[in-house]
């Protein structure tokens, strides 16, 4: 029996390894640099948008600005300040760039600084300027943001594909009649906004923040939302261990979890939750799926709120036990399911912390299909794999968007080829997602209390929001849907 390699075979193997290293390593580094650039540009864009909104709203009765600094030695940075100038204002935050990101000298020379002040209450800018961010080691990688004298901000990161497949094209439908429903968790309310961020209404209270409450029809830290084909609104009220239903006029109807009031401390019965954490509705029959994370299961109810069955427990009911395992490497099971979405065929897709998304039939049968690999290591590059997938949404072409919580990004997947089509940034693993009729992607970012909008090609369209209690502002938003 032959053992080992000949010198020739060993030489060929080493040569192939070297060639693969030459090809793969630069690509991996390139992905990392592009990700750093995208995230830096996005955060700058969001802070510019927030500063302008603060000026328009006269937050703290002040104008707001950004001070940009490109030192001749040291790390480029920018500072957010309130007041009419950086010299006399109050700095509220200083943000440095990653080591390989800098300002293009053509837009901000080495050793120079520049201030942009958004004046209260017009929101107009003190100067008209363009700033370009580049990857220092590869200046061809760049992202530009422009500000004009009226205060309008344009540009920012554009996110291209990182895997096989083609991007989603814009649908022929119109989103003009749709609205955003945002779970404003810290303010214990649901806000209805236009798709451009204009405040329309809120509930359960009529203005400002709503008090924390366990009373039926009110909230104690809401964190998920879904709307059925009749316009009825379902809201997860996590600290009261329930899901509340409201009609299209925002009037309370009923709840799941217990007959009325707070359902604390929850449970594992058919109509109980240990930690409701995600919700989805099948528009074909308005059946409701709830991810009961604390019980490692998904529970299905019909449109009348009657319990149907649960996925996946072998016992058929109650909490789903892992039998002492700290990680679930078995297909067709869950470990802390955190995201739900229903595709056009009525199939349910469930994400869990095993770095996978599983497909289930409308009758609760596992389809022997998954994206990702159970028990796999995190893909921190956000390029080919999952790292703690949470919130999900599916667009009209059945592409799946999922928040990769441990790599702070959103991934767009082709569920058939199981390839990554695009990636988008989010600054927190608790970002939430939705898509409109034109397949524009909306990302709620609770770190900045903003909503970022991307076109089907990945271009940044706009962002809106900001921290506060007035309409159109948020305090730790954790859910969103479009209807």
Word description of this protein:
10% of the residues lie in helices and 37% in strands. It is mostly beta strands. The protein is globular, with a radius of gyration of 24 Å.
Task: Please tag this protein with its features.
Neuraminidase; minor pseudopilin epsh fold; globular; 32 strands; mainly beta; 2 domains; 10% helix; 483 residues; 4-stranded antiparallel beta sheet
| CATH class wording of the largest domain | Mainly Beta
Helix content: 10-25%
Q: What's the name of the CATH homologous superfamily of the largest domain? A: TolB, C-terminal domain
Spatial separation of the terminal alpha carbons: 68 Å
Name given to the CATH architecture of the largest domain: 6 Propeller
Helix/strand/pairing category = mainly beta
Number of domains: 2
In angstroms, what is the radius of gyration? Answer: 24 Å
Runs with pLDDT <50, length 5+?
A: 18-29, 158-173
Strand percentage: 35-45%
Summed up:
The protein is mainly β and 483 residues long.
Fold blueprint:
Elements: H1 7-56, E1 64-70, E2 77-82, E3 90-96, E4 101-103, E5 112-118, E6 129-135, E7 138-147, E8 153-155, E9 180-184, E10 189-193, E11 199-203, E12 222-227, E13 233-237, E14 242-246, E15 252-256, E16 276-282, E17 287-292, E18 297-301, E19 307-311, E20 339-342, E21 348-352, E22 356-360, E23 366-372, E24 389-394, E25 400-404, E26 409-414, E27 419-425, E28 432-435, E29 441-445, E30 450-454, E31 460-465, E32 479-482
Antiparallel strand pairs: 1-2, 1-5, 2-3, 4-6, 6-7, 7-8, 9-10, 9-32, 10-11, 12-13, 13-14, 14-15, 16-17, 17-18, 18-19, 20-21, 21-22, 22-23, 24-25, 25-26, 26-27, 28-29, 29-30, 30-31
